[in-house]
Amino acid sequence: MTASVYPTGTTIYEPEKCWNGYTLYQATLHQKNGVGAILIDMNGNVLNQWKGLDGFPNKMLPGGAIMGSTGIRNMKYGYQDMLDLVQVDWDGKITWKFEKYERVKDPRQNPRWMARQHHDYQREGNPVGYYVPGMIPRTDGGKTLILCHKNLKNTRITDKPLVDDTIIEVTWEGKITWEWTCSEHFEEMGFTEEARNTLSRNPGMKPAGGGVGDWMHMNSMSTLGPNRWHDGGDGRFHPDNIIWDGRQTNIIAIIDRGTGKIVWQLGPDFTATEALRKIGQIIGQHHAHLIPRGLPGEGNILVFDNGGWAGYGAPNPGAPSGIDNARRDYSRVLEFDPTTLETTWQYPPPKTGPSGPMFTGFYSSFVSSAQRLPNGNTLVTEGQGGRILEVTPERRIVWEYLSPYTGKMLKTNLLYRAYRVPYDWVPQTERPEERAIPRIDNNKFRMPGAATGRAKKVTIIQK
Question: Most exposed among 233, 299, 382, 440, judged by the fewest C-beta atoms under 10 Å?
């Protein structure tokens, strides 16, 4: 049970310990004419609102421009398909648009082009879509890498129709120059016979369009960029190679840009080696990416490991059909070495009891993300509860913000992914005053007019 009253906006702020800047997030995801994209300062003041601009996710570009979508396809016919991918200026004027991936004819609708973009995209110049010193995304040209959907059948997986994940690259003019289709690499992924049987029966079926299997559910995709592994001669980590993660399969993988083949993979099995058992089962993860050169931890993989439920495998009491057979009731942010799988940082710190890991109170079973900041802090989106944190390497929360916007669809303040950008990326505003917000002592905090709860002290004397 959750509280009916709780503070929103910025609730903790230690300016001297933060990487100060502006934070961009979308409010009320996938809501027609909703709140849209919100840009706030460290004290939670809203600097700009792009009303109606959906964000799956929204990303900021230098000069006060942002990217997003003008809307989502009717969920009766398409599953999480964005109509387009656009770039807009500070005033909301569209300055770039891509929609011509597939011409779609839905019932009682006129045919139209759609991007069918979902969950992620990257603009040339920056591998990960968040601020990296010296890696500036293009705003007036360049290519864009886009994660999209495509309906197809693949009998090696199932006889049911699939909504598959694809990655495309498009020029500034909108020409598609490269495409990669996930299901074509099914045999490379190492599913067990039990997992294959479960996938065949139920490949993550969704009701859209009469029923389609969202079998992989990729939710992040980015290039590796320059890194120490490739510098040392490991071809798997070529800067142009692409890392992605599949929420439903518990897989994180890197594909060779030239051949399309999977050259590095973590999951779905986390039991085969001591290193895998030590890192532990990753479940329903989001935003897996290689920390770019120029940021603390460069070359490590950073991922929001949601927990919740995901995976295919043998039936068990929590998953009688074998789908969503891996379950855990807490989340964690992991940073690890992709060559040894050694965990180099984790938030929150692991807690264990007599039977193993324990619930930490940090939990978002879906959405969410993590961004490494230039000072070594990490911006964490605990999205299911609309909470954004900045935490230090020592795991101290030095900034906390709770979204005040409640969506009509999910009736929560859920947000998908937040990003921090430097002040000079937004020349339309003056640098704001940074006013510290001390922590509230919850043992003493009371609403105006509420009782103090104080009681007479009594000493118990044992006879």
Answer: 233
pLDDT of 443 above 90: no
CATH code at 9-425:
2.130.10
pLDDT tens for 177-186 read: 999 999 999 9
Q: Which residue type, as a one-letter code, is found at position 63? A: G
3-state DSSP percent of the chain in helix, strand and coil, to 5: 10, 35, 55
The reported pLDDT for the residue numbered 6 is: 85
Residue 36 burial (10 A CB sphere; 0-12, 13-18, 19+): buried
Q: Are 304 and 368 in contact (CB under 8 A)?
A: yes
Question: Which among 54, 6, 151, 48 is positioned nearest to 417, based on CA atoms?
Answer: 54
Cβ atoms 283, 306 nearer than 8 A: yes
The secondary structure of residue 354, as a DSSP letter, is: T
Three-class SS of residue 307?
coil
**Beta carbons within 10 angstroms of residue 91's beta carbon:** 9
Among 374, 417, 419, smallest CA distance to 62 is for 419
Average per-residue pLDDT for the chain:
94
Residue 384, helix vs strand vs coil: helix
* CA proximity to 220, closest of 122, 321, 135: 122
3-state SS of 143-168? CEEEEEEEEECCCCCCCCCEEEEEEE
Average pLDDT, stretch 435-459? 81
Query: 374 preceded by cis ω (within 30°)?
Result: no
> 59-73: b or e for each residue (b if 16 or more CB lie within 10 Å)?
bbbbebbbbbbbebb
Q: Are 350 and 332 in contact (CB under 8 A)?
A: yes
Beta strands in 226-316 (DSSP E): 242-246, 251-255, 262-266, 286-290, 301-305, 308-312
Cα dihedral value 195, 198, 204, 210, nearest 10: 150
**Domain locations along the chain:** 9-425
